[in-house]
């Protein structure tokens, strides 16, 4: 299996003396769908931002087999958006053209791409609505459309399915699958373990300052604990959450 | 009718000092109003006020060394304002303190130092001059400075417009493209300080911030579109300068408080009668989302 990004003894965190996750030894499989699973505060978002290059690793290495400056698209959490900002949906999604237009280049010539992205997630009829008028699900689709516009090889999604309706989840999953078919690699921080089980091939489990890599099938079998000893408690944790989710 | 027109225009036709005051204040409005809109949208309205106070020791020191020199006071104000912004941002970053607390600490210290410096040598009249400006006595140097600041400000504002919008809207996303957000924010804070420094010549340090923030706060009650908000805030700002100067001319009121009070009255009217969010509007208020202040300083 080919890796698109490799993490070698990676320790991450926001401040030098406060590591959130230690010594991560893992990789992102090329053209795969990888889920980051773990409780709030475990370091999923921090890992995504570290891969993105926004946060520097405290120690260890990240080896990219793509160009990290141009080939990574990012979908932040919904709460990072200032929803009262006076801008309409189409203008908001157009920000996904940043890599092409930057600070000054005109966006007009890419309007059909923006329209196409809106159609892909089913919000083309909301194009002129202001952000403050959109529901959480609609805005989540807009965030997704913005990321689609980047047409990147690696897509990093921070909790894309949190607090959204089932229709939105299925549209976004369908689009993620389509991106994967077109050669993209997907990494998403996800809380819903059923979703992980059904749609993601690989997992990174976050627990007590460490990360364990597994396939999604292994994640839900007793055998898993024997395969990856350090993760016995992780499996327990995942199992408990799964029961709770059911 | 003719009387009304004469009432509105005659003072500016008859007196050069009124024309100069209007040109100065209107020029200032062009530069400051768009900046005010973004300060408000970035939830930094009170930062504008803090920065207005922070420039005082630089101005005071320049005044002590060079007297009432427009250029020296401008440079002094710029240096002091930028220093406070950078120190507050860096302290927040290094010590994990909240930015509002570090900014409050630095600007209050800066303000006290400024008052101390002025009272060490100058008279109360000098202090009043710095605090409330001299819109009716703008000389050529001050007018030129206002014009240069306005042009530079509009040019820089246009250049950083896109990252400024995206950085306000979704800072995490902009950060994923590199350091554009940081550069734009630094340039923006520079514009805030530069416009406040230019503003103190006309309206004084205390009142200049009113011309910056209030038009934006009013515009938000009347439009939901960013472009309209920017335009409306400029128009409101210029109109308030004009009306304030007339008030000051006919009733002998101090100029800068007249301008800012007019804007404050406009704000109150908007709060009550705005068709978008006004108190008299029927139906539910539009949802607003009050996220925490993000890392805006540096």
Architecture per CATH nomenclature, i.e. the level-2 architecture of chain B: Orthogonal Bundle
Work out the radius of gyration of chain A.
Answer: 18 Å
Distance between the termini of chain A: 33 Å
Report the CATH architecture of the largest domain in chain A: 3-Layer(aba) Sandwich
Proportion in helices of chain A? 25-40%
Biggest sheet details of chain A:
6 strands, mixed
Provide a quick synopsis of the model:
By secondary structure, chain A is α/β, with parallel strands linked by helices.
Please, could you describe this protein's structure?
Chain A has two domains: 3-71 and 152-245, P-loop containing nucleotide triphosphate hydrolases (Rossmann fold, 3-Layer(aba) Sandwich), CATH 3.40.50.300; 83-150, no CATH class. Chain A contains ten helices and nine strands. Chain A has helices at residues 44-52, 89-94, 98-101, 111-120, 136-149, 166-181, 193-199, 216-219, 223-227, 232-245; strands at 3-12, 21-29, 33-37, 59-64, 72-75, 154-158, 185-189, 202-207, 210-215. In chain A, helix 6 (166-181) links the parallel strand 6 and strand 7 (185-189). The longest helix of chain A has 16 residues, at 166-181. Chain A is globular. Chain A starts with a strand and ends with a helix. In chain A, 45% of the residues are buried. The model of chain A is unreliable at 223-246 (pLDDT under 50). In chain B, helix 2 (16-41) crosses helix 11 (204-219), helix 2 runs antiparallel to helix 12 and helix 4 (56-66) packs antiparallel against helix 5. By secondary structure, chain B is mainly α. Helices cover 80% and strands 0% of the residues of chain B. Chain B has one domain (2-273): Orthogonal Bundle (ABC transporter involved in vitamin B12 uptake, BtuC). The model of chain B is unreliable at 288-298 (pLDDT under 50). Chain B has 13 helices and no strands. Chains A and B meet through helix 3 of A and helix 8 and helix 9 of B.
């Amino acid at each position: 299996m080919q890796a698109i990004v490799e993490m070698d003894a990676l320790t991450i965190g926001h401040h030098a003396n406060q590591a959130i996750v230690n010594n991560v030894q893992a990789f992102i499989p090329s053209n795969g769908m990888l889920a980051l699973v773990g409780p709030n505060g475990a370091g999923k978002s921090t890992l995504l931002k570290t891969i993105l290059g926004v946060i520097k690793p405290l120690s260890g290495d990240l080896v990219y087999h793509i160009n990290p400056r141009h080939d990574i698209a990012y979908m932040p959490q919904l709460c990072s958006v200032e929803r009262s900002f006076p801008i309409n949906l189409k203008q908001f999604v157009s920000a996904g053209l940043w890599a092409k237009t930057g600070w000054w280049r005109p966006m007009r010539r890419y309007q059909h791409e923006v329209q196409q992205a809106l159609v892909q997630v089913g919000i083309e009829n909301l194009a002129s609505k202001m952000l403050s008028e959109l529901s959480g699900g609609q805005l989540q689709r807009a965030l997704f459309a913005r990321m689609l516009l980047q047409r990147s090889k690696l897509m990093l999604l921070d909790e894309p399915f949190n607090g959204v309706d089932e229709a939105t989840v299925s549209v976004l999953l369908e689009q993620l699958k389509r991106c994967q078919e077109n050669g993209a690699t997907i990494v998403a921080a996800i809380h819903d373990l059923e979703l992980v089980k059904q749609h993601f091939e690989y997992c990174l489990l976050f627990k007590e300052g460490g990360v364990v890599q597994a396939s999604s099938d292994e994640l839900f079998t007793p055998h898993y604990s024997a395969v990856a000893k350090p993760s016995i408690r992780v499996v327990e944790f995942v199992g408990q959450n799964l029961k709770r989710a059911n | 009718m003719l009387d009304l027109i004469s009432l509105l225009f005659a003072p500016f036709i008859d007196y050069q000092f009124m024309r100069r005051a209007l040109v100065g204040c209107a020029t200032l409005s062009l530069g400051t109003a768009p900046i005010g809109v973004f300060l408000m949208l970035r939830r930094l309205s009170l930062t504008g006020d803090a920065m207005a106070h922070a420039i005082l020791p630089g101005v005071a020191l320049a005044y002590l060394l060079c007297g009432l020199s427009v250029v020296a006071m401008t440079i002094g104000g710029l240096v002091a304002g930028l220093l406070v912004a950078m120190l507050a941002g860096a302290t927040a970053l290094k010590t994990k303190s909240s930015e509002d607390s570090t900014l409050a600490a630095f600007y209050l210290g800066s303000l006290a130092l400024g008052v101390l410096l002025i009272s060490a040598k100058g008279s109360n009249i000098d202090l009043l001059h710095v605090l409330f400006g001299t819109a009716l006595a703008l000389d050529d140097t001050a007018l030129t400075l206002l014009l240069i600041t306005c042009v530079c400000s509009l040019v820089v504002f246009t250049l950083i417009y896109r990252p400024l919008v995206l950085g306000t809207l979704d800072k995490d996303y902009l950060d994923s493209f590199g350091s554009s957000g940081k550069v734009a924010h630094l340039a923006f804070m520079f514009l805030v300080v530069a416009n406040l420094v230019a503003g103190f010549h006309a309206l004084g340090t205390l009142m200049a911030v009113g011309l910056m923030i209030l038009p934006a706060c009013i515009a938000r009650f009347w439009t939901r579109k960013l472009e309209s908000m920017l335009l409306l805030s400029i128009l409101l700002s210029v109109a308030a300068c004009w009306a304030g100067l007339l008030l000051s001319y006919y009733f002998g009121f101090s100029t800068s408080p007249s301008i800012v009070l007019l804007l404050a009255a406009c704000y109150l009217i908007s709060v009550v009668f705005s068709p978008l969010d006004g108190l008299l509007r029927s139906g539910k208020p539009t949802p607003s989302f009050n996220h925490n202040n993000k890392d805006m300083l540096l």
